[in-house]
From TrEMBL:
Keywords: ATP-binding, Nucleotide-binding. It comes from Nocardia acididurans. This is ATP-binding protein. Belongs to the AAA ATPase family. SMART domains: AAA. GO terms for molecular function: ATP binding. Residues 199-326 form the AAA+ ATPase domain.
Length: 417
């Protein structure tokens, strides 16, 4: 008997690989075993107990629902066996098990029972090849996280954002520079490698909260539509090593680390540094220069970043500041966030009064103005925002009672703070 285990999140891929293998061999019927404590023993142990003690009898296989996309699921074998043949035609038995964290099993696995080890190994290897060929993660947007059961790791599918270039308001030339460093390298990977250049790249977007760093990342997810995207935030940053391994396997790929300063703060603040800092550095170094992998990092505190991350070539190749929008940017943001409504107000006073504010602030301003218009004129056809609506919303947001709200939206510090 030869077996192989994978992380719980690979269950759908294991099912895809086994299904493809059985299709190659002319299909086979799944069967199961009836009896207690099946998950605690391997196939050989189950056979022994069945033959000598009669603990198990043939029964139906167990199935579980697993995700294979943002809005798509499939049935996977939780515990089941299939009689089939090895690539050389000799008989083998496959046993598939899903993870069962309630009973301490946090991996999925396949067991191959054959007359000899070589036959079992060849069968197992072919299943692995087919798992890779039919990987459900390829080309998806994925988010790492944890479940409530023993903190076992999970992967969730996210819808791919759809943003056009005119929905991203940055300083002049900034978006073109960012796209050249990410999208253009992906488009010209073959030529760059032929010229002896590396294609792995690291991009750091930095600036105050609310200026559009995450929005820009979402735009790049759309532009890199053929890439697998792996998003790490919060506690999931502890899975950076797994994310990097997955990115390497599923390239072209993108690894997004939001608020990277949470784990990559300069070691001068602490002699040992954050324990995940070294995992991040190792993950970025462990991917070869010929790999089509992009690391997208964001931070609100670029000055606090560890020098080994920010200053070493090959980790971060380009740092782009996303500042508070200037007057031109605020005007563009007003147009962007007023789509779907009619604005009769003069934008000039609002543009002047929002100096130093962020994109998040202006987005919320338009929402509040629209709500005021809807409440004040419920019978009006469509949403028409006038001077009074915008001025009232701005006064509300600038009120002393809204200081914390402004801070959360990235507003500059109040005078004297």
């Amino acid at each position: 008997m030869v077996n192989q285990t994978w992380r719980a999140w690979e269950h759908a891929n294991l099912q895809r690989g086994v299904d493809a293998y059985l299709a190659e061999r002319g299909q086979a019927d799944w069967f199961g075993l009836s009896g207690a404590h099946r998950s605690g023993d391997d196939v050989m142990g189950l056979l022994y107990s069945s033959i000598h003690h009669g603990h198990y009898r043939l029964g139906a296989p167990d199935f579980v629902t697993v995700a294979i996309g943002p809005d798509e699921v499939t049935e996977a074998v939780q515990f089941g066996l299939a009689a089939t043949t090895a690539p050389d035609g000799t008989p083998v038995i496959l046993c598939v098990r899903g993870s069962n964290p309630h009973f301490g099993s946090e991996n999925c696995q396949v067991e191959v029972l054959a007359a000899d080890r070589v036959t079992a190994t060849v069968t197992r290897n072919r299943i692995e090849q087919l798992m890779d060929a039919h990987n459900v993660f390829r080309g998806q947007v994925l988010s790492f996280g944890y479940s409530e059961h023993r903190r076992n790791e999970l992967i969730s599918f996210l819808p791919r954002p759809h943003l056009a270039a005119d929905e991203v308001v940055l300083p002049e030339g900034a978006l073109e520079l960012i796209e050249r460093h990410t999208v253009a390298i992906a488009e010209h990977r073959t030529e760059l490698l032929a010229a002896g250049q590396h294609v792995k790249r690291g991009l750091l977007l930095h600036g105050p909260p609310g200026t559009g760093k995450t929005h820009t990342v979402r735009y790049l997810m759309n532009r890199l539509s053929d890439s697998t995207v792996i998003v790490l935030t919060g506690a999931a940053m502890g899975l950076i090593e797994h994310a990097a391994n997955l990115a390497r396997k599923l390239q072209p790929s993108v690894v997004v680390v939001e608020d990277v300063d949470l784990i990559a703060r300069d070691r001068s603040y602490s002699p040992t540094g954050h324990p995940l800092l070294f995992s991040l550095l190792d993950a970025m170094d462990g991917i070869g220069g010929d790999a089509d992998v992009t690391f997208l990092l964001t931070t609100n505190r670029a000055g606090d970043l560890e020098e080994a991350l920010a200053d070493r070539p090959g980790r971060v190749d380009l740092a782009v500041e996303i500042p508070r929008p200037d007057a031109r940017g605020r005007e563009a943001l007003l147009r962007l966030y007023s789509r779907g409504m009619k604005v009769t107000a003069d934008p000039a006073p609002i543009i002047a009064a929002t100096e130093g504010q962020t994109a998040s602030f202006i987005k919320e301003l338009l929402r509040r103005a629209a709500l005021r218009a809807i409440i004040c004129r419920p019978d009006e056809v469509g949403t028409v925002v006038g001077d009074a609506d915008l001025a009232g919303a701005l006064a509300e947001m600038n009120d002393n009672a809204a200081t914390l709200t402004r801070t959360l939206l990235g507003a500059p510090p109040e005078p004297g703070d």
